[in-house]
Amino acid sequence: MLSAVIIAKNECANLPRCLRSIQEVADEIVVVDSDSTDDTPEVAKSFGARVFTRSFTTYADQKNWATSQATHPFILSLDADEALSESLLAEIRDWKKRTWNQPSAWAMPRLTNYCGTWIHHGGWYPDRKIRLWAAGSGEWKPSNEGGVLHESWIPNAGVEVFDFDSDLLHYSYFTSADHQRQLAKFSLLGAQDALRLGRKSAFMKPFARAAFQWFKQAIVQGGWRDGRAGLEVARWSAIAAFWKWTLVRSTLEHQKWKRVAFVRTDAIGDNILTLPLAGALRSMLPHVEVVWVCRSYAQPVVAKSKLVDVIRIWDAGNMAPTEEEALFEDVDAVVFAFPEPRLLAAAARAGVDARVATGRRWGTLRSANRHVWRSRKWVPEHETSQGLRLLHGLNLPARWRFPERCDWMDLLKWKAPSQSGSLPKHLGDSVLLHPGNHGSANGWPLKHFCTLAETLNSQDIPVIVTGSDQERGGMASWLERMSSKKGFIDAVGLWTLSELMDVLADVGCVVASSTGPLHMASAQGTPTVGLYRAEAPFWPDRWGPIGGGEVLVSSKLNENGGLDLSVDEVFNAIQRVLASRSIQSSGV
User: Cα(8)–Cα(140) distance, rounded to whole angstroms?
Assistant: First the structure.
């Protein structure tokens, strides 16, 4: 009698709750998966669902197609993050006992759970939705012709709509970050729908719309009665409104852009932590080419990225002003992740239309024409996150679209290793130690790295030591002594930066202070043990590795200014990381 229909993508967390709630009343379960990268199809099959795969088009079209796969005369359509309450389940159980001879549909109040709090005000309740109907009695339609957002099920003429009294439970957001991702996504889609309708936005409209949205939800609709959660909902709704109308105002400009440049002319690790900005830009403006301006020593690392189309090298001190201007040839917008004064001036002279930089340096006030007013040195926010905020200067809600480190890894796309015959193979059990850090942050004493290498070697754990030729001097005698030991590789000064990238992607764990190789490994998915000082400016809150592993923090420095961490602490962290990787590799 009743087919339950669900569309889903990457819904492993929500789908079991949804399917358990309908098992008793659904005579058939249809799940249409949109190319999930998790186990959504397998989860659905474990509940006896008929699973179809179809790439996502629009919400209305996807739901109509899913409905067409049902075989029973009545349809119950749910989202994966919805579930029947016990009382609604009882109502549907009683409903199934009755006979319905005319085309009908049924609406139900939807109660939303926001970060653990049920929201009863602010316009979020009762939020009645038609979720059950006789097959063929209506269809899903977008709120406006050709739109992609805010679909509704619309009954055919003459179809009577009845009401259920009990709540459909909506588990919308588990964390504030979930809400941020959704608001950015819906702002983009909402702007597209507004533009299709011919809507326009002046400079003040985003601010006015945001203020109105907050006042309506928080005050007029009583969001304050739900306490902190209700005010949080109103706040993010206001931010969503701001970005929707900002995007409406900016889309025509975005469509004209062909090339956007990023300037990162400091260390290699800084370039690694900035590369997700290129991924964020490409995800929101896929037609745009990415130009990367960096120093020559960072070029091999940036060249490994699939996200960068053109690399332009700034040779500090050896370039004439006209050559610096040429770095921005045919560039429509530039983001200064590092506000190099000479290049800021060069971009202004080159006539780049949109020049984004922090507003907290005197040099940027004159040469940049779009500023982001946020302290980067003392605010405990990660460098990648702060970089994403710079894209707000291009009127793109990148910080909200990608709020957490798990999002940033998805923004990094690397080319395949070069398969150089000179590199060692099958290094998955090896621990790579990189003692040097060029003084960019407090380091761990070399003598501790030596002891750690000997400890690992005594446990038959292969060890690789890397570094530059300049760093070999301080390690020469130790490296010579260790080189005869089985399972020890002295690679100091041996590999190019590109080759080092390939090795870092292959080893089992990398141990280093806050330095380029640590970030090169982590950004490629290799777990790391990062060694950091607790205090600013080199704290892990800002400079921690993007990927997985562990971060060890030293609350004080030793007598020589090095990190006060014991060898045992680091060794134990390595063992945990290797054990975790082994479990993941075995699929347990």
Answer: 16
Q: Model confidence over 542-580: pLDDT tens digits?
A: 899 999 999 999 888 877 778 889 999 999 999 999 998
> What's the CATH fold of domain 2-173?
Spore Coat Polysaccharide Biosynthesis Protein SpsA; Chain A (3.90.550)
CA–CA gap between residue 328 and residue 333 (Å, rounded): 9
The confidence score (pLDDT) of residue 351 equals 95
Concatenating the DSSP letter of every residue in 90-102 gives HHHHHHTTS---S
Structure-block tokens of residue 405: 């480190």
Grouping H, G, I as helix, E, B as strand and the rest as coil, residue 250 is helix
Instruction: Please state, in angstroms and rounded to a whole number, the distance separating the CA atoms of residues 268 and 317.
Output: 19
Are 565 and 544 contacting, i.e. CB atoms less than 8 angstroms apart? Answer: no
Q: How far apart are CA 30 and CA 3, in angstroms?
A: 7
List, in sequence order, every residue forming a beta bridge with 153; answer none if it has no partner: 140
Residue labelled with tokens 């777990």: 527
Q: What is the pLDDT of residues 16-29, one digit of tens each?
A: 999 999 999 999 99
Q: What pLDDT band is residue 433 in, cutting at 50, 70 and 90? A: very high
Report d(CA 431, CA 453) in Å as an integer.
9
How would you class 149 by CB atoms within 10 Å of its CB: exposed for 0-12, middle for 13-18, buried for 19 or more? Answer: buried
Hey, which CATH number is domain 431-586, 3.30.465.10, 1.10.287.3510, 3.40.50.970, 3.40.50.2000? 3.40.50.2000
Residue 224's SS3 state is helix
Three-state secondary structure readout of 299-327: HHHHCCECCCCEEEECCCCCCCHHHHHHC
Domain ranges of the chain: 2-173, 176-252, 257-410, 431-586
Tell me which residue of 370, 312, 322 sits closest to 342, measured CA to CA. 322
Please compute, for residue 478, the number of CA atoms within 13 A of its CA located in the half-sphere on the CB side: 17
The model scores a pTM over 0.85: yes
DSSP assignment string, 484-512: TSTTEEE-TTTS-HHHHHHHHTTSSEEEE
pLDDT digits (tens, 9 = 90+) for 86-127: 999 999 999 998 887 788 999 999 999 999 999 999 999 999
- pLDDT band per the 50, 70, 90 thresholds, residue 332: very high
C-alpha closest to that of 280 among 375, 171, 188, 152? 188
Among 169, 165, 127, 152, residue whose Cα is nearest residue 20: 169
CB 554 within 8 A of CB 439: no
Joined tokens for residue 409:
């890894």
Torsion on CA atoms 357, 360, 366, 371, rounded to nearest 10: 40
Same fold, 257-410 and 431-586: yes
Q: Is the alpha carbon torsion for 237, 243, 246, 247 positive or negative?
A: negative
Whether CATH 3.40.50.2000 fits 257-410: yes
Bridge-partner residues for 355, per DSSP? Answer: 334
